[in-house]
Amino acid sequence: MVRYIVRRLLQAIPTLLGVSIISFLLISAAPGDPVSLRTAGNAKMTPKAKETMRRQLGLDQPLPVQYLSWFAGVTVRPGDAVAEFSSDKVRCAFVTVIGYTVCDTGGGVIRGDLGTSIDTKQPVWERLVERMQATLELGVISLLVSLLIGVPLGVLSAVYRGGFFDNVVRVMAVIFRSVPIYWMALLLLLFFSVWLGWLPSGGRQTVTLTGETTLWDRVQHLILPVMVLSFGPIAFFSRIMRTETLEVTHTDYIRTAKAKGLASNQVWFTHALRNALIPLMTVLGPALVGVLGGAVVTETIFAWPGMGRLTINAVFQQDYPLVLGAGMFFAVLTIIGYLLSDIFYALVDPRVRLE
Amino acid sequence: MAVEQVKLPSSPLTRTRSGEELLIRKPQTFWGMAIGSLRRDKLTLIALGFVVLIGLLSLFAGVICGVLGVDPNSTNPRDAFAQPYVWAYIRWLLGIDLTTAPELLYKSGGVPHWLGTDQLGRDQLARLLYGGRISLSIALVAAAIAMLLGVVVGAAAGYFGGVVDDVFMWLINTVTSIPDIYLLIIVNAIFRPSPMILTLYLGLLGWFGTARFMRGNVLKVKSLDYTTSAKASGATDRRIITQHIIPNCLPVIIVITAIDVGALILTESILSFLGVGVQPPTPSWGNMLYRANDFLFLRDPATGQLAALHLLFWPGILTTLTVLSFYLMGDGLRDALDPMLRNKR
């Protein structure tokens, strides 16, 4: 098992590297020159000072060298330039063997330095972490709700295969998949908060002077966004559970269970359900991606103070470091999600480990 | 005792030649059977009909708008948020309400706005038709690009294996680990594309699923006996791929592409809804809803009714039904094209 986990962890490294390369290329392609962005409004910056800054940031170097500096916080320059680049933050050393000066800038994506937000001048990392809790709260609750609803729906429609219930669930699943999530959100908003006036139309809690809130207030604010985010995954889970349950019913052990005279409930819920649940592990990763993607739209409509809304606002303020930081952050979350779902899968199904 | 010669009754479908009974019914081909199976599938036919209808309507958007005397871009601030004329007209015909319909006509200067107008007084029906043209063509072209790339890359990766496979799978795993909607938002935010370039992005970032599926299918077909036998009789790689692998993966490709078109319509509309897709004044179903979102709570000062419900309803329902039709077509085609699945359902 340990070997499987280690192998799986190692497999994630090239993916992470790939994500970082794509992000870096996008950063380089983004309009706006980092030096002008940093020095905007600073009258003391002469063109010569800008040139020095450009050199210090390593922007005069070829792209692969820039990537190294951005990713690992290590810059490389030909010749002995220790005196020029050393400062209280940057440590440099001249490596005589290769004739290059190597500097450690103390930053780099690998150490969590995703750059500085243009808008607030805060580190991108800080701004994302601030909002992470809200997004995870929404995402995890939606995922749980859709598992609790989708899995039983799928199993029951397999049990009553071809019947009325099965048809209703299948039609519902394909409709849920086709409705644009934002349109559904607007309709629900119109129905529950404008027409009935039961639920708040947005935000994470009622705004109060002291910032106090009750649990009930928080739950009320959660209902609509969770509903919207759950539609897709409910359809997804019910479809998969239906197929998996039907698949399992053709196996020998189910026939044995039936043959030895077990009650139908016991056959379905002890023998069939348990085995049908195993493949569900593999789709939890993709489902997480789906929920995180949906969070962008849902958070925008319901004014939910999460990372998705932060990203969209950053897009409109052209705060590219923040946008890309968010993209990378989500990519890492996704990779971790896939990793965990693979490991769980291997835990419950020993056959996977042998492959 | 002589064995009695048994004479088989000759069926109308067989004829005798040199003592053997021969089948004179034309042999059924794979595609013939698929079409036959599709013909019996009412739901798929309805979905296909809807797609054709929407396609024709948006193709002839110019003609239809000309006949109705409306234009998607001409504004009329005095006639903003006009309610759909169609309901008022029906009530007028039935004699229930004789005042609303003429009133609407008077306000619009004699032009009936069958589905109402938006915040600038532009005709919604015309915008929906032109929007459908944009949304559908983006989705169709992007799906075609994605299909081509996906099939070529998937087939190459699956067939050749080794380094080619490793490199492509690495690329696919990497890109798909960024939620695609984020990737598209980022790319669109940075490059602010025109609808044509947007189509290109959607296609270029949309082939990973197809390629992965294709690769799996190629791996399956590659291990089948007829491929081995083709290889044994000395067929070239190119011949095996074009004569054996791709034709046998075609059903899967068709199904995936149909579903892909639906998914791409959704993606485009989400991007436009977020303001990073098709930019106004060019209409698309998504950016029409993006505008409508701003007027969600707007009430008519005279009656107190919500004034923009029709702007919210029509683009959404059209998107939903179109996407639904493509998904249903995909499912129907899967049943029709995959003989292995046909009995499983």
One letter per element, helices H and strands E, the order of chain A comes to HHHHEHEEHHHHHHHHHH
Please state roughly what percent of the residues of chain A sit in beta strands, choosing from under 5%, 5-15%, 15-25%, 25-35%, 35-45% or over 45%.
under 5%
What Rg of chain B, in angstroms, do the CA atoms define?
27 Å
Quantity of strands of chain A, as a count: 3
Radius of gyration of chain A from the CA trace?
A: 26 Å
Structural class call of chain A reads mainly alpha
Q: Write down the overall mean pLDDT of chain A.
A: 80
Indicate the proportion of strand residues of chain B: under 5%
- The count of β-strands of chain B is 2
Largest sheet geometry of chain B:
2 strands, antiparallel
Oligomer: heterodimer
How much helicity do the residues of chain B have? 55-70%
Query: N- to C-terminal separation of chain A?
Result: 12 Å
Instruction: Give the proportion of residues in helices of chain A.
Output: 55-70%
Pair with the biggest interface = A-B, 47 and 45 residues
Ends of chain B: how far apart? Answer: 54 Å
**Principal-axes shape call of chain A:** flat
Low-pLDDT stretches of chain A? none
User: If helices are DSSP runs of H or I spanning 4 or more residues, what is the number of helices of chain B?
Assistant: 15
